[in-house]
Q: What sequence folds into this?
């Protein structure tokens, strides 16, 4: 259990101890300097060397602590990013899609560093606390009344800091949201470069209404936040300066100028550590906003919650039938209102079956395929495999039966997790079959390039699916951007080979000239299955049409 979101061992304890030692040595230096202000007689010749030694010790301890903190900072952020990346993979796909790529990327890059910042600053703050405590103890020994006034002043400053930080929270949240918007616009700038270059008015409007407007809004909120934080830091500093002046005035008015100088020296020594402590409060506030943003995405920053994750349950090897029983799934807008609902769907898929799924745009074909793949969780009803209901406990095991090339597929620059398949020689064979030998080369599992045409990239994605050799294959409009040769290869050769090896294929397609190849054709309209036809009927219809001709 880790309330800070980190393992306890990740706290830089040794650096904290060094910070404590640096604080003690700094306090000792203060006491030596103050002792000099009160000495009237000759000074020992060893005093300068002692003072220099204490100063050097303080310097070395701080450098040592900062070096350890720098190392631990990178380890901390590495651990947090690794954990958050793994947690993101466990999020439901629908949650990731609603959040948006830009928000997740910003969380991994920006929020992790913000959450880790207070932990990184902890050794320095610890040393500052030690200096303040030691200095206040020494000040109380000299002048109890001044110590009480100083403590009261610091409490007022801390209260003011908390107030200003609380006021800044709204602007921090707003500035954080604008950073998400800005990253989304930058993504559009890169991905929409062709469309922007072809239309000057569009590009000018994009720069003015999207990029510049968002940057100006973010700048306004950031300046407001910085102003609040500056007011918080400056308040304690100004109060300490005021206290210095008053103490010096009181000392001179009472005829004790030396005591006043010593008190001012101590108060001056307090400025830096108090400022460090005060600056730590806004860092905590920023970390809270970043943590709230991560939680809003459904990402937990706690690394000690592995026990709460469902343990993976393996399924029996091989399967005979997958069934969807009264399955529904809805897409909701930002107000929580359903904009599209698939189902209820009842569908049974046998091992080795070739099923075509067709229908108009927005009819729910891809949504249905993602439910079959285990990427979307049914809101009602259930999916079962050989009578065993797919739940959170066996979902990952169920997914290991599935390979897919979706319409919006992502192509990695290497064949991840396929080292054995690459080594057995099948890679070279299929690279040639798919017409990619002259376009891309492989160094082990790494590809020489993925900067290919969309059709070639889709064939590379198909290559990965073939090598995975899963029992359920899903193709979402795979042949839509293929030429005649590879379209024929896909329908006439690849799908037949899958069926002959008792591998099931779900094919989303509009190519009605190939419908006769399917065992069944599932038609959807407005989220509902309107018909399920046998491929035999399609073959008969085609034969009848040929007879009429």
A:
């Amino acid at each position: 259990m880790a309330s800070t979101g980190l393992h306890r061992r990740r706290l830089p304890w040794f650096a904290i101890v060094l910070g404590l030692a640096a604080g003690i040595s700094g306090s000792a230096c203060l006491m030596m300097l103050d002792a000099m202000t009160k000495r009237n007689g000759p000074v020992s010749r060893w005093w300068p060397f002692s003072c220099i030694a204490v100063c050097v010790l303080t310097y070395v301890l701080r450098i040592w602590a900062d070096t350890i903190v720098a190392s631990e900072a990178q380890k901390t952020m590495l651990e947090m990013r690794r954990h958050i990346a793994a947690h993101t993979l466990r999020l439901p796909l629908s949650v990731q899609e609603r959040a948006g790529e830009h928000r997740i990327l910003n969380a991994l890059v920006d929020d992790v560093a913000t959450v880790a910042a207070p932990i990184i600053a902890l050794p320095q703050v610890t040393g500052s606390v030690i200096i303040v405590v030691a200095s206040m103890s020494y000040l109380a020994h000299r002048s109890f009344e001044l110590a009480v006034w100083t403590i009261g002043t610091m409490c007022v400053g801390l209260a003011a800091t908390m107030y200003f930080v609380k006021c800044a929270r709204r602007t921090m949240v707003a500035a954080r949201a604008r950073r998400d918007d800005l990253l989304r616009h930058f993504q559009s700038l890169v991905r929409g470069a062709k469309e922007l270059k072809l239309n000057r008015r569009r590009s000018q409007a994009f720069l003015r209404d999207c990029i510049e407007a968002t940057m100006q809004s973010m700048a306004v909120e950031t300046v407001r936040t910085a102003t609040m934080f500056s007011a918080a830091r400056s308040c304690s500093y100004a109060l300490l300066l005021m206290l210095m002046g008053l103490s010096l005035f009181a000392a001179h008015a009472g005829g004790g100028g030396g005591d006043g100088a010593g008190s001012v020296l101590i108060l001056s020594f307090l400025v830096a550590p108090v400022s460090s402590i005060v600056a730590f409060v806004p860092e905590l506030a920023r970390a809270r906003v970043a943590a709230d943003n991560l939680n809003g995405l459904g990402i937990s920053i706690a690394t000690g919650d592995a026990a709460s994750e469902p343990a993976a349950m393996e399924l029996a090897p091989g399967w005979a039938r997958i069934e969807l029983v009264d399955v529904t799934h809805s897409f909701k807008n930002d107000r929580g209102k359903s904009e599209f609902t698939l189902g209820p769907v009842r569908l049974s898929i046998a091992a080795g079956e070739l099923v075509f799924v067709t229908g108009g745009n927005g009819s729910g074909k891809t949504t249905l395929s993602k439910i079959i793949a285990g990427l979307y969780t049914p809101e009602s009803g259930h999916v079962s495999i050989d009578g065993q209901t797919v739940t959170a406990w066996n979902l990952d095991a169920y997914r290991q039966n599935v390979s897919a090339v979706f319409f919006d597929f992502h192509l990695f620059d290497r064949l991840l997790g396929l080292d054995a398949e690459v080594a057995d020689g099948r890679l070279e064979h299929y690279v040639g079959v798919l017409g990619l030998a002259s376009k891309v080369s492989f160094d082990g599992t790494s590809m020489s390039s993925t900067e290919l045409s969309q059709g070639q990239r889709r064939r590379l994605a198909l290559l990965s699916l073939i090598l995975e050799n899963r029992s359920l294959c899903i193709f979402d409009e795979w042949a839509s951007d293929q030429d005649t040769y590879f379209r024929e290869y896909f329908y006439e050769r690849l799908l037949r080979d899958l069926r002959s090896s008792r591998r099931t294929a779900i094919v989303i397609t509009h190519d009605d000239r190939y419908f006769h190849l399917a065992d069944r054709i599932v038609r959807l309209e407005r989220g509902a299955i309107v018909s399920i036809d046998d491929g035999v009927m399609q073959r008969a219809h085609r034969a009848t049409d040929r007879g009429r001709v």
